UniProtKB/TrEMBL annotation:
A GO CC annotation given for this chain: plasma membrane
Signal peptide coordinates: none
Record EC number: 2.7.7.41
Descriptive protein name: Phosphatidate cytidylyltransferase
Residue ranges crossing the lipid bilayer per the database entry: 48-77, 89-111, 123-141, 162-182, 188-207, 237-259
Family, per entry: Belongs to the CDS family.
Pathway it works in: Phospholipid metabolism; CDP-diacylglycerol biosynthesis; CDP-diacylglycerol from sn-glycerol 3-phosphate: step 3/3; Lipid metabolism
InterPro entries: PC_trans (IPR000374)
The UniProt record lists the keyword Transmembrane helix: yes
Length: 263
């Protein structure tokens, strides 16, 4: 039930866009900064939380004004300032990387929504592909089973789940192309995009498992009843947002054709 509520709020914020989506991402940033500080530096929680929050929240604000470059440099500056507290190279990378891991996807997500006329379609496609991939990866892994993908990281994730999730993402991508009335010649590109976005999301889920294993925790937190923390719920979306954000940052004209007439 809590997952359905969060999904509904996410879709509503995506349709509203502007300050509503920025506020929703800001709330997620507060929760994820708390979770990251709790996991990575329980002995120095307050400074870790404050630096991560300042960097990520500032990045979301800059991004909501479409100043993505400022967002990036502000976030990196806060991440480095926080990392100087650490006394080892591994600790420095961990702290700086954590702040960027939280802030960059959120800033890109806000930027994607308002960067052009097809912003809403971009976000809805991300939701559809990632949700399809997550659902089918879970049930595909349960029903088919088979070899585990990485027992050391996550004992339950299987190759069958990854394949099922990737195929589901490809199908969702095709569905998006049809919904947005894209040209018939772009259906295959939509299938490929769906598969790539889904696979990147599933790898993001695996990366989150790696982080939790490294910090010795089962869930990022217990903020969402029955689902763990916010990081546990949107890890796939974060990774996929990085992929789509990078693609559109370097190829901004690509979406004009892909999204056809839109919704």
């Amino acid at each position: 039930m809590s997952g359905l509520v969060l999904a509904s709020l996410g879709v509503a914020a995506a349709f509203a866009g502007g300050p509503w989506l920025a506020a929703a991402c800001g709330a997620a940033v507060v929760a994820m900064s708390y979770e990251w500080a709790r996991m990575s530096e329980p002995g120095a929680f307050t400074p870790a939380f404050m630096f991560s929050l300042a960097g990520s929240l500032g990045a979301v604000m800059f991004s909501s004004w479409q100043y993505l470059t400022f967002a990036f440099f502000w976030m990196v500056a806060c991440a480095i300032a926080s990392a100087t507290r650490r006394r080892s190279i591994a600790g420095f990378i961990e702290t700086a990387g954590g702040a960027i891991y939280i802030g960059l996807p959120c800033a890109l997500f806000v930027w994607l929504r308002d960067r052009g006329p097809e912003g809403l379609e971009t976000i809805l496609a991300l939701f559809a592909i990632i949700w399809a991939a997550d659902i089918f990866a879970y049930f595909g892994g349960k029903l088919i089973g088979g070899p585990k993908i990485a027992r050391g990281l996550s004992p339950n994730k299987t190759w069958s789940g990854i394949i099922a999730g990737t195929f589901a993402g490809a199908a969702a991508g095709l569905g998006c192309g049809l919904l947005f009335q894209a040209d018939a010649t772009l259906r295959l590109p939509w299938v490929i995009i769906g598969a790539l976005v889904a696979f990147s999301g599933l790898m993001g889920d695996l990366f989150e498992s790696f982080l939790k294993r490294r910090f010795g925790v089962k869930d990022a937190s217990k903020l969402i009843p029955g689902h763990g923390g916010v990081l546990d719920r949107i890890d796939s979306l974060m990774a996929a947002t990085l992929l789509v954000g990078a693609a559109l940052a370097f190829g901004p004209g690509a979406t004009a054709l892909l999204f056809g007439r839109g919704i």
